[in-house]
Amino acid sequence: MYESIAASMQPFPIGLWVPPPADEVSIARYKEIRDAGFTFVIGFREIEHGEETVAKALDCAQANGLKYLVNDPRVKNLGVTELSAMEPLISRFSSHPAYLGHLFFDEPGADQFERLAALARSYESCAPDGLAYVNLLPDYASAQQLRTATYADHVEQFLLTFKPKALSYDYYPLRMNGSVKATYFSNLWTVREACHLHQVPFWVFIQALSYNGTHREPNEAEIRWQVNMSLAFGAKGIQYFTYWTPDAANGETFEKALIGKDGAKTSTYWNVQRVNDEVAIVGPILQSLQSEGLLVSGETPAGVERVMQSFGSVVSLEGDPAIAGCFSSDNHPHSIFVVNRDYSQPADSVIVFDDNRQLTIRLEPGEGKLIPLSQ
Fold it and tell me: Which residues form a coiled coil (predicted)?
């Protein structure tokens, strides 16, 4: 049933950071992106090789039904007194059928928000249908980077100042020692609550590679776990860090991503493809619904400040530790998306209904299942 419903909806946004390098931009390479289940590409360094390379990337994206976000430092580095220079830079690409928008900043401090907001308002007058894209820092950034008293202040200030069409942020939780960063759920909760208040969709980056000797390469279950947790919290888009394996830069080192430096698909490519195939089914449904909160079995994750005791006909979530995102349609309970909180062991989750029925569902490591509720 859900497959047919999803087919009639808009595709769920699934993006990537670090696309094929300039000398690899081709219809065939962008077909690999499409085949892995992606719907949009965030430009990287194509502009360094000239506007023609960006135009070629847009053409390759269009040929494969993808959207493309232009990354042009000439735009994102404009000052507030230079806004008249924006229109000719934007118009070069904004009429292309594959054009999604422009990247304005990756991980700005709060001291950049006013300037970026001025750029966004000018941009919107040039490309009203385009996306002025900014990706925010995670909560483990330093106070000097955030430039605010708390991370919640950082997110709130961005929403109030920049007024994004969608808020994106990155958080890479999987440590080399096998642990998960302590504030993973807290960061998800902070962004979810702020975006819920302001009625702004949020997008999350997913860790897809090992880097710096501190973050491990995720297996398929760990990728699935990150994605499904994001969906349960109400994310309306996901993005992967990274697609093509980056070169070492700025003191950072990177292991293989979905595509190795030699251009060959890695095992992560196929893992992500399988997860994205699942998102293509459930994502459009969740995208059309309103996130109302969380049901939790087991101990409430640190940083999640409030959980629901019941939702619609569901009076409790029991069994092994799980999180269920609660979703409504037209102010009526519609479904819950139940996710195994363990990415290494299966779980049995028990949904208790108000008519004394119980539904036990088996969840593989990191798996999520959408459970419709009676209307």
Answer: none
CA distance 358 to 351: 6
As a whole number of angstroms, the distance between CA 245 and CA 92 comes to 29
Q: Can you tell me the distance from the alpha carbon of 132 to that of 150, in angstroms, rounded to the nearest whole number? A: 25
Joined tokens for residue 309? 């005791």
CA distance 8 to 192: 27
- For the entire predicted model, the pTM comes to 0.96
Please give the backbone phi and psi of residue 14, each rounded to the nearest 5 degrees, phi first.
Answer: -130, 110
Q: What digits encode the pLDDT tens for the residues 56-88?
A: 999 999 999 999 999 999 999 999 999 999 999
Smallest CA-to-CA distance from 44 within 256, 268, 245 is with: 245
pLDDT digits (tens, 9 = 90+) for 25-51: 999 999 999 999 999 999 999 999 999
CA distances from 227 to 54, 257, 348 (A): 29, 17, 20
Q: Where are the domains of the chain?
A: 2-287, 290-372
Structure tokens, 174: 């999987």
